[in-house]
Each structure stands twice: as C-alpha cells, then as structure tokens.
Amino acid sequence: MRGNPIHENLSTAFVDLTALVRHLRGLQFVGSVRLEFASYEAEIFFTPAGRIQAREYDRLAGRIAQGERAFRRILRRAKEPMGRIHVLPLGPKETAARMRKTFVDDRLVALAQDAAFGKADTLVLEEISAFTSKPTRAANNNAAELASELILIVKDPFDRAKMDFRAAFTAACRGVAEGYPFLGSADFEGDKLKVETHVPTGELFEGVTAVLSHMIRQLRGDARFEKMLIYTRHRLLQHLSARHDRYSRLGILDTVDRILG
Q: Is this prediction's pTM over 0.90?
C-alpha cells in the first residue's frame, strides 16, 4: 500500500465497516478503505465528488466484481472475524488513477493464462455503479413506501398484544441513532414513515432494518413472545415474496434479510 494510512490492520472482529464507511463519508474523506482476508480482498473508494465505488476479488469463488452488489457483499464479509481493514487517504488524482487501474493485475494475468488452458474458475464482471448522495425522488418515495410496509408488519403483532408500538419504535430509533442520525427526525404517523432529510435508499433501509431488528431482539429469549415472533417472521417472509421485484430493483433485498437474521 502506498502513502501513509490513517488506520492499518484494524481487525474486523472489532470494527464495524458499515459505520466506518458512513463516518468517513460524513467527513468527506477522499481515498480508499481496503478489506483483506486470506482468500478475499476488496477496496471501497471515496471520490472528491462524494461518491462511493467498490470492487472485490474472491479467490475461492473465482469472482472479480465491482458495483453496488459487490459493495453490499463487502459489508457483509467485513462482519466476519480474521479480516484486516486499512484506511488510506489519497488525493483526487491518486484516487482517480487507482480506480482506473485494473484490480489485482497479476492475478488477472494468471486467470487469463488459466483460461487459455481451460482451468480458470468463472469470472464475473459487474458494471460499476456509483453511490450518489442524493437519490432520485421516485426511488426515495418507493423506498419510504416499502419501509412503511415493513414497519406495519412488525407493528401488527404489537397491536394484537396491546403493546405500545410507537413508544417501542421511538426507543429503538434512539438506540440506533448514533449510526443513523437521520432517525432523529424520523416519525411514524398515520401508518406512514416520515423522514425530513434526504436519505439515500440504502441508508434509509439500513436504518429501518436496524430499528426493527433492535425491536425484535428485545423480544427474543422471552417465552411470552415466542408465538408473536413466529407470526412476525411468517408475515415478513410473505411480504418479501410479494415485493421481491421491487426490492431487487432498488438493490436492497439483502438489507431487508437482516430483520429475519
């Protein structure tokens, strides 16, 4: 690695990469965050324009990929132990040059040689997709609508049990607000989720799923709520099946899965 890293050899067992990315973006950081495992490496770039781009190389899967789906896989992979994270500041020109440079050049050459002799694993290349700070109004409205439906699904068993859902929802928002500041202005009124600030679709859903997951975790381990949780899981699975295409178009299907985890 070139330059002087801000952080080097941070353990994935102790560092939340999702929170780190959000923090660096808030600081308007320019440079890259590199994730390394024994058989996997990835890099997330922060551009001067405030965009995020990502690419990964999974040796076991034989996959080199970049784009939004790669970015989400990187965040999931970073939740595993035994990995290392490096944060490297770069100037605008250095960042642009590093992004243009072919990822792991020597390994691509090796893959090409293997392919010539029919020994290569499948190579997957995905079109790069930049994360913009301002989502389109249509995407944001669509995301807010789906988020409201998710909240209503979790709200239903609370209502059936005559529990104060709104109080629990507000408390959960406070519980995760450090990682999702926009939830400080969020409100669930008239069965609709209302967020005052413009929030990228991915961040909106990460926040909502974090709140709902927090609420569900509070009920686990208590036998009184076992049937309530089984019912909630059943309703969520039905919802995901019915709305699968919409979630896929927005690229947030994996995010919603966390509620079921």
A: no
